[in-house]
């Protein structure tokens, strides 16, 4: 087994292993997958004079021509040296292509594969974990220690000081996606440029909840009947690399929470009590949207919306290329229903 343990990931990625030229990066944190892939690809191509640098392949194209991956990896670099290949897995099966590559791995190549959340013991993950020529690295949401390290390193690189209270407040707002967290920290550093220290006031003024704010905005606008706001938030999220099925999954969870609250209301409760009793607690910024949704939707209509969203979620997972279009259409339909009342 060549599955890398979480505690060994940073050390493993800090050096190239010629005996294991294939590196599979996968997991639910797509931002961390992408960040680690970029860093490893940069390390692999460092010092190269090849003007074309890294060869980038699409998994859906490779699935129809499995031999192409072997050919690209085995091709000599234009100016000699190491061949560097980046493969982003999509919705189609790339196992035959990777299997052929692992059967006869090239001596002068590094192949980095980016994938989504893969089940243990199946498909691409099982293949790479079982091969002596590959590394399989899972990318899960950052722990508090990981986030603290990220905050400290970025503030130190910027030459800025962060108050203790501000650091704690910032850490509470980060997580879920590495690239989103990094973006929020960079935004804070830019906002506080020229200030003697970064304070809690700076954090509250500029930092959103990077792990869930975008998803909350999409879900809240959907069920509050604000299709234009939903479409804007959806475009921003997908533009930053968030997968359509993740968005739909979050909106489904919101629908389930609303359904439970509506059940309690229709059983004799009231909206205020449902809002106050929600667990986890609803952030004060979201309460107006959730209240509007609770007053506008019935249990029966929420059930129908949830079925439609579930169907869209399944379709988006089956066809990743069309996922954004499938998701946006389903969300616009639900938002339109909410708007019409």
UniProtKB/TrEMBL annotation:
Enzyme class: transferase
Substrates-to-products reaction catalysed: DNA(n) + a 2'-deoxyribonucleoside 5'-triphosphate = DNA(n+1) + diphosphate
InterPro entries: DNA_pol3_clamp-load_cplx_C, DNA_polIII_delta, P-loop_NTPase
Gene3D superfamilies for this protein: 1.10.8.60, 1.20.272.10, P-loop containing nucleotide triphosphate hydrolases
GO molecular function list: DNA binding; DNA-directed DNA polymerase activity
Keywords (A to Z) from UniProt: DNA replication, DNA-directed DNA polymerase, Nucleotidyltransferase, Transferase
GO terms classed as biological process: DNA-templated DNA replication
EC number: 2.7.7.7
A cellular component term, taken from the record's GO annotations: DNA polymerase III complex
Keyword Transferase: yes
PANTHER family per the UniProt record, alphabetical: DNA POLYMERASE III SUBUNIT DELTA
UniProt similarity note: Belongs to the DNA polymerase HolA subunit family.
Name of the protein in its database record: DNA-directed DNA polymerase
